[in-house]
Amino acid sequence: MSKPTSAASSRIDDAAVRPRDERAEWLELAREARFYLQQTPRQLPSRLLYDALGSALFDAICHLPWYRITHAELGLLRQHARTIGQAIGPRGRLVELGCGSGEKLATLITSAGMPGLHAHLVDLSHAALARSVQTLAMLKGSETRVTTHRATYEEGLLALPAGAAERTLIAFLGSNIGNFDAPGAAALLRLVRAALGPGDALLLGADLVKPEHELLLAYDDPIGLTAAFNKNLLVRLNRELRADFDLGRFAHRAVWRPEASRVEMHLVSLSAQTVDVKDAELQLALERDEMIWTESSYKFEATGLRHLVEPAGFVQRQQWVDEDARFALTLFAAA
Length: 335
Ligand code: AVJ
Prior knowledge:
single chain, 26% strand, disordered N terminus
């Protein structure tokens, strides 16, 4: 499935993996919705937020003054690009898990000057991959080769050609790790480690604990973008699973749970109501104030990150912290 490209300086391939089958994906969506909506409390996996509109809304969120992760991380990437670039060396391989718009990778390549880089982009959203490819194609003279993987992180990692001769850096940025609870993060990090050889590197972006009012502004912003991002999950189920969620009868809510060190996003039912999710063969009876839990965003302590990552087979090399935004970029070497 490789496509020719019109880009001047980049070559683009689709991954040499089985393309995600549309019907299989739809069946999986129905199965997941059915399973998670019947849990107590009711839930939906946050991964499902990233359809085409969801990815575009998340991109927009990154421009909000109250959501400081992206801006802080771009600053750190720009400042320390040379050091990060040295972790790969010339003609290396860079894998980004959840590339979104591709802006972070483009910033890194531009600031570090990584000649002959082979970038592997892993994202669930076709639209996000297309945007990333475009962003990278616009970089002049870097001769970056791009391979896209429309896949989950786990599938993307397993699809990487093993035993590559080139040095590899896996970039897991934007505090995407924050969507995993501790056992989930540990399992994913072991999978990341398994895709690397000794001396390869992991670049991890992680959002840090900060005052509650700042967290609530970031996850329940005054212009309602995050609310739209959250509610779009119901729009998606209405469209893809023939559900009949009445959007006017749900509210977006963000809660900070200090004991668990995470922000939760919920969709709260504003009245007692029943919802039919046809293709999941599910009738939901929701009470007033009952919630559907759609996301956890764990927040970290900068000094605690090594205790999360090192047991998976890494050694911390360097850490850069934006103290103002409370965000950390940490470079690990595979042990
Ligand atoms: C992309 C998962 C890192 O948790 O901060 C933004 C997603 N959710 N606003 C995050 C998100 C609400 C974001 N991550």
